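User: I've been trying to design a sequence by hand for this structure and keep getting stuck. Would you show me what you'd pick, starting by listing the structure so we're on the same page?

Assistant: Good idea, let's start from the same input. This is the structure you sent:
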């Protein structure tokens, strides 16, 4: 009977320790996710501002429709490069 009681107590202590570890890891993971979201928002803002600057540069050189077209070509080039990189990473794994 003593063996069963000690085994049950050990199991409860293990469950408590694992629960504390899980709580700590959840807090760490939540923090990392929040930082990644902030990074994604800042990256999207930076890309939008950079493309706006490219559009203004093209608008000073060309007519407005040509400037929009040239800016869209820049966007498509960036998107193609990102998709190509993602496909290479996916196939590598």
């Amino acid at each position: 009977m003593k063996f069963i009681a000690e085994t049950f107590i050990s199991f409860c202590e293990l469950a408590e320790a694992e629960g504390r570890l899980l709580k700590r890891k959840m807090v760490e993971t939540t923090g990392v996710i929040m930082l990644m979201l902030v990074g994604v928002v800042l990256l999207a803002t930076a890309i939008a501002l950079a493309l706006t600057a490219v559009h203004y540069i093209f608008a000073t050189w060309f007519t407005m429709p040509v400037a929009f077209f040239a800016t869209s070509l820049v966007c498509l080039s960036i998107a193609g490069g990102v998709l190509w990189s993602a496909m290479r990473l996916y196939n590598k794994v």
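That's my pick for every position. To get oriented when you compare it with your attempt: The helical segments are 2-61, 64-92. The radius of gyration is 27 Å.
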